[in-house]
Specification:
Helices cover 43% and strands 10% of the residues. It is of the alpha+beta class. The chain folds into 2 domains: 92 residues, lambda repressor-like DNA-binding domains (434 Repressor (Amino-terminal Domain)); 195 residues, 2-Layer Sandwich (Beta-Lactamase), CATH 3.30.450. Strands 2-1-5-4-3 form a 5-stranded antiparallel beta sheet. A hairpin with an 8-residue loop joins strand 4 and strand 5.
Length: 305
């Protein structure tokens, strides 16, 4: 599953044009049986204003001469959204790839205190690849089964696909898991040579057919905000919002927090869960300052896959 960046470009283009019918782009229906789903390479090239040979070379991963304007034209033909367009540019521009972080992730004391200050909703800090860096006590109680993962493997993608309790927690587990896979695919576009990503993808592809199928879809998603429904084994049904923020000075981290409407049944359920929760049992050793109640961090975040 550790695919070359060139193959990632070709596979992405093939899956995107397979979604688009000739009618979607104003072409007349073809006579007879089409041998490929969606658009043909020649049709994409025609509509993008490039030669068929040029587009075929691009789909085969020969991307040295791909200009931004050509990529934008192809994105327009394939009706890519903003996240997919950026992913196409990343795949076609190997020099823009980011080097994977090799040093262990350390939370600065102020960010840790900010996480500690969140006590009425679940909150966490994620690193590259959805690695879990830290989580508050209510978050550790909310994400049931997270403590079953070994300290060096605490990762939200791994949690979703390998812990049975995660499948029971999410009302729409499949929708959530597929979205997370699509976001991981976006990360792969900008970090194609990250060995920890390759290990994570390879392991989950072997272990789970859903992950394997969704990874092969080459869908791309950009993290934003919204709401989800949950079924917690202790406090029942909840509907929580979620927000994802990038801390200033730590662009590879995400501070994620749930939100809840005041005085709602979900707020009362969280308050009940908080009153029952013991301090987090997850390891507490990010290495930045003295341990606190919110230090549900992995022992060595740099080794997480």
């Amino acid at each position: 599953m550790n695919e070359p960046a060139a193959d990632g470009l070709g596979a992405f283009l093939r899956t995107r044009r397979a979604r688009i019918s000739p009618q979607d782009v104003g072409l007349p229906p073809s006579v007879g049986i089409r041998r490929v789903p969606g658009l043909r390479r020649e049709e994409v090239a025609l509509l993008a204003g490039v030669s068929a040979e040029y587009y075929e070379r691009l789909e085969r991963g020969r991307r040295k001469s791909a200009s931004a304007s050509v990529l934008d034209a192809i994105a327009r033909v394939l009706q890519l959204n903003a996240a997919e367009r950026d992913h196409l540019h990343a795949l076609a521009s190997p020099h823009s790839s980011k080097r994977p972080r090799t040093a262990p992730v350390r939370l600065r004391p102020g960010l840790r205190r900010a996480l500690d200050a969140v006590t009425d909703v679940p909150a966490l800090v994620l690193g590259p690849r959805y690695d879990l860096i830290a989580i508050n006590d209510l978050g550790a109680a909310f994400y049931t089964g997270l403590d079953l993962l070994p300290a060096g493997q605490r990762n939200i993608v791994r949690y979703l696909f390998t812990v049975d309790a995660a499948r029971e927690l999410y009302d729409d587990w499949a929708g959530t898991a597929r979205t997370v896979v699509a976001e991981l695919r976006g990360y792969a576009g900008t970090h194609p040579h990250d060995p920890k990503l390759a290990d994570l993808v390879g392991d989950l592809a072997v272990r789970d057919q859903d992950f394997r199928r969704w990874w092969a879809d080459h869908d791309v998603y950009r993290r934003d905000y919204g709401s989800k429904r949950y079924h917690h084994p202790l406090v029942g049904e909840l509907e929580l919002g979620y927000e994802a923020m990038t801390p200033v000075g730590d662009p590879e981290l995400v501070f994620g927090t749930h939100t809840v409407e005041a005085h709602s049944p979900s707020a009362r359920a969280l308050a009940l869960l908080s009153s029952w929760s013991a301090p987090s049992r997850l390891d507490r050793s990010t290495g930045a300052g003295q341990p606190t109640a919110a230090d549900a961090a992995i022992s060595d975040p740099g080794t997480t896959t």
